[in-house]
Amino acid sequence: xxxxxxxxxxxxxxxxxxxxxxxxxxxxxxxxxxxxxxxxxxxxxxxxxxxxxxxxxxxxxxxxxxxxxxxxxxxxxxxxxxxxxxxxxxxxxxxxxxxxxxxxxxxxxxxxxxxxxxxxxxxxxxxxxxxxxxxxxxxxxxxxxxxxxxxxxxxxxxx
Length: 159
Known about the structure:
The chain is mostly beta strands.
């Protein structure tokens, strides 16, 4: 739940027990390659980010995700053992222990946005704020949910 106020251009927006998602970034560049999706749906919500992470001269694929399903939270993260099993053409399959999440961009509805590269807004990314996507989540091989929606947010920047 979201509680609080935001001041934008001398206008105040108040939120009280609202459903919401807030994103922040303290970096100066977007990852070279990444995928990000977020979706609200009956019974819950999810967010997943997969990105190329450069650290001390080497690179790895990092995963961070949260699934909220009828009050229960499931976390998927590199630091918890999450692995990207497949990442191809807007399809991602993530496995962590006995959990498996599949997401697929089914239909693009993209806007072009400027993004930072070393602090300068000189990269163009494609963001889909309302795309058609598929989500499937299983635990111990048992499906928790499977659905398609046209209300997903999805970015996929892989060559």
